[in-house]
């Protein structure tokens, strides 16, 4: 086998994976970000939630005068 046929065989073998990645990369990324945001919201991870504007007010300590 020469190099040309090996490259063609490799391309044919890898093509389904490339097609899958092109089709599903954006939806999987979107779902992952959504799950992360919901996880932070429901778990109330204070370390991360204090960095979110407007949401950090939930963790403000009341001052006693």
From TrEMBL:
<keyword id="KW-0812">Transmembrane</keyword>
<protein>
    <submittedName>
        <fullName>Ubiquinol-cytochrome c reductase complex 9.5 kDa protein</fullName>
    </submittedName>
</protein>
<dbReference type="GO" id="GO:0006122">
    <property type="term" value="P:mitochondrial electron transport, ubiquinol to cytochrome c"/>
</dbReference>
<dbReference type="InterPro" id="IPR015089">
    <property type="entry name" value="UQCR"/>
</dbReference>
<keyword id="KW-1133">Transmembrane helix</keyword>
<dbReference type="GO" id="GO:0005739">
    <property type="term" value="C:mitochondrion"/>
</dbReference>
<keyword id="KW-0472">Membrane</keyword>
<feature type="transmembrane region" description="Helical">
    <location>
        <begin position="28"/>
        <end position="48"/>
    </location>
</feature>
<dbReference type="Pfam" id="PF08997">
    <property type="entry name" value="UCR_6-4kD"/>
</dbReference>
<dbReference type="InterPro" id="IPR029027">
    <property type="entry name" value="Single_a-helix_sf"/>
</dbReference>
């Amino acid at each position: 086998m020469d190099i040309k046929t090996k490259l063609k065989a490799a391309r044919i073998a890898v093509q389904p994976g490339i097609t899958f990645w092109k089709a599903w990369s954006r939806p999987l990324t979107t779902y992952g970000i959504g799950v992360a945001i919901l996880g932070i919201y429901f778990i109330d991870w204070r370390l991360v939630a204090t960095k979110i504007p407007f949401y950090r007010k939930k963790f403000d300590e009341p001052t006693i005068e």
